[in-house]
Design brief:
410 residues; binds zinc ion; GMP Synthetase, Chain A, domain 3; Rossmann fold; alpha/beta; globular
Length: 410
């Protein structure tokens, strides 16, 4: 491809194989470097398949382009205009919008199932029994009971039984679920797992026999990783993905680096922010979609049998910034709320008028200390204190800042 930033990608996504062969195909492809291929083929296909892309590629006066890098970048604001081929099974998912603009992603049932296959790919290389009990932390304030019927899923020769725990659920209920089930695998929202660990007696977690904790959904802070390892006495293997693209990269149980799913998603470490092209999405094709994180390809571990290239995430979607009464931006990192005792979770939201809403879980006396810290760092803005992080009616993570105030986008 000459000077093109794309070195290789396979001609076909594994989604075109029968579903029963996805796990084997994703395993085999992970074990070998992606074969070289011609990105011009993909551009040609998109132009033929979609009037939207035919138009964009023509307007940018690259009608006959073969150079991938000449294709216009799809920004968040452009996504709504991408026509969706609906086979009747399309479902909408909205991105969390913790960094401002929300985007609606539309996938068919088959695409959603393939996304799950890609999400489960790292587990093909975990040392797990052929029947796995897992507990997954998800958005929500409820928790399954061990008596509830699990969700069942067979993949890569392993039968998974899954129970879900809301990241904001009562910690005692989650603890009961875990101690009853003794799951080999714990996955889900990183800050939800952290909040849970901080709320319960850790001694009871170390004897569960959990082999792996696989957090995702947000940047895994080093202290969060240490806390999870220490509490569960398990191997912690992070995942990196996005609602728009699906699973992008995963921490390898053999070399610890993050291998990128470059065989299914064209990943460009653009200086202006990460660009992704998921090859398995046909219903709402995203061509060079700007996700915006900063990543870089690394050399990886020379002795790892997994051939997928390795990446380092240097800056993932951050919290929004707050804007103080004088119009100065304030980084959420300045709060150091972790120093406030008896605080379990918080979310801070700046309204369109500039007022701050501070949602928290914890001892009652933590609230005023928290509010004072916010007033000190964000002078000139009224602060409303609200008990219960789940009162904030928008999707998102804990220990996060969100903003509707102009100029607060991260
Ligand atoms: Zn590896």
């Amino acid at each position: 491809m000459g000077s093109d930033p794309i070195s290789s990608y396979p001609e076909r996504s594994a989604i075109e194989l029968p579903e029963s062969r996805w796990a084997d195909a994703l395993r085999e492809r992970a074990l070998s470097p992606p074969p070289p291929a011609d990105t011009a083929v993909l551009l040609k296909e998109l132009r033929q398949r979609s009037a939207f892309y035919a138009d964009r590629l023509t307007q940018s006066s690259v009608a006959g382009i073969t150079a991938w890098s000449a294709a216009p970048i799809l920004e968040k604001a452009d996504v709504a205009a991408v026509p969706v081929a609906d086979d009747g099974s399309v479902r909408d998912t909205r991105t969390s919008g913790t960094t401002g603009q929300q985007v609606t992603i539309r996938n068919t049932r088959r695409e959603r199932e393939f996304r799950r296959a890609l999400l489960y790919r790292p587990q093909l290389f975990y040392e797990l029994p052929n029947k796995v009990t897992q507990v997954v932390f998800v958005d929500g304030d409820w928790c399954a009971s061990a008596d509830d019927r699990p969700k069942r899923f067979a993949y890569g020769g392993v039968r998974y039984q899954t129970w879900f725990a809301g990241a904001a659920a009562a910690p005692a209920e989650v603890l009961k679920l875990l101690t009853t089930l003794k799951p080999q695998l714990v996955r889900g929202i990183a800050s939800g797992i952290v909040r849970f660990i901080e709320c319960v007696d850790r001694a009871s977690l170390s004897s569960l026999g959990t082999r792996y904790v696989a957090p995702g959904g947000e940047v895994l802070l080093p202290e969060w990783r240490a806390l999870m390892e220490d509490a569960f006495r398990a191997t912690v293997l992070d995942r990196y993905g996005a609602t728009e693209s699906g699973a992008l990269a995963w921490q390898c149980p053999e070399c610890n680096a993050y291998h990128a799913n470059t065989d299914e998603i064209i990943i460009e470490a653009d200086p202006g922010g990460l660009l992704v092209t998921p090859l398995f999405v046909r219903s709402q094709p995203l061509l060079r979609y700007r996700l915006g994180d900063q990543i870089e390809f690394t050399r990886g571990a020379a002795n790892c049998r997994i051939g997928l290239p390795t990446v380092r995430i240097t800056q993932a979607r951050r919290d929004d910034w707050l804007v103080d009464g004088k119009g100065q931006k304030v980084s959420p990192l300045s709060f150091q709320f972790e120093r406030v005792g008896q605080l379990q979770a918080w979310r801070l939201h700046q309204r369109t008028g500039g007022e701050l809403q501070l949602y928290f879980d914890g001892a009652a006396e933590a609230g005023p200390r928290l509010a004072n810290a916010v007033r000190r760092h964000v002078p000139g803005r009224p602060v409303e204190l609200i008990e219960g992080v789940w009162q904030l009616q928008r999707p998102g993570k804990f220990k996060r800042v969100s903003s509707d105030f102009p100029g607060g986008e991260g």
